[in-house]
From TrEMBL:
It comes from the Archaea. The lineage of its organism: Archaea, Thermoproteota, Thermoprotei, Thermoproteales, Thermoproteaceae. This is PaREP1 domain containing protein. InterPro entries: PaREP1. It comes from Pyrobaculum calidifontis (strain DSM 21063 / JCM 11548 / VA1).
Length: 164
């Protein structure tokens, strides 16, 4: 029996794409929790970041038409459809989150900045000077990861009804 997560993702044009992204967010969240339990905070931070990107993917798919309406140019509308929905690029998560805020998701930008801080921590470890990472210790990072994962789960709960 093939697990649902092992199947290829539906096409980005498919209605099931947002649901698959939410499932991915939950799987990444579970992995992050498992890493936290093993005190592997950098791995947990990376999984938390991936979980948030999956939530953003679902949001972009669900709100694509509204986002295209607030896009400033035809090129931006095309980019949203062809590039942003299939694979949210890390370099554009802030801009995409700001667009989502414009269509009513007020807290997405703040959550995105937390996700990016976790991403930095994953790559740079604790940093007492806070130049490369916003966390001075593993304990600070672990506390924020756990809090952030609750945000991810709240979003999944909020969006799951919109997918079905």
């Amino acid at each position: 029996m093939e697990l649902a997560i092992e199947r290829p993702l539906p096409k980005p044009t498919s209605a099931d794409y947002a649901s698959a992204s939410l499932l991915e967010a939950l799987v990444e969240t579970k992995l992050a929790i498992d890493f936290l339990k093993r005190r592997l905070t950098r791995n947990a931070a990376g999984k938390a970041f991936q979980a948030w990107k999956a939530v953003l993917t679902a949001l972009l798919k669900l709100e694509l038409e509204r986002l295209k309406a607030v896009a400033k140019t035809e090129e931006e509308r095309r980019w949203l459809e062809e590039r942003a929905v299939p694979r949210v690029p890390t370099s554009r998560v802030v801009a995409l989150s700001q667009m989502l805020r414009e269509v009513g998701y007020e807290d997405v930008v703040g959550a995105t900045f937390v996700a990016l801080s976790l991403h930095d921590y994953q790559h740079h470890s604790p940093d007492s000077d806070m130049a490369l990472s916003k966390f001075r210790s593993r304990e600070e990072a672990a506390m924020e990861i756990a809090t952030f994962l609750r945000t991810v789960v709240k979003y999944v709960e909020k969006l799951k009804g919109a997918c079905g």
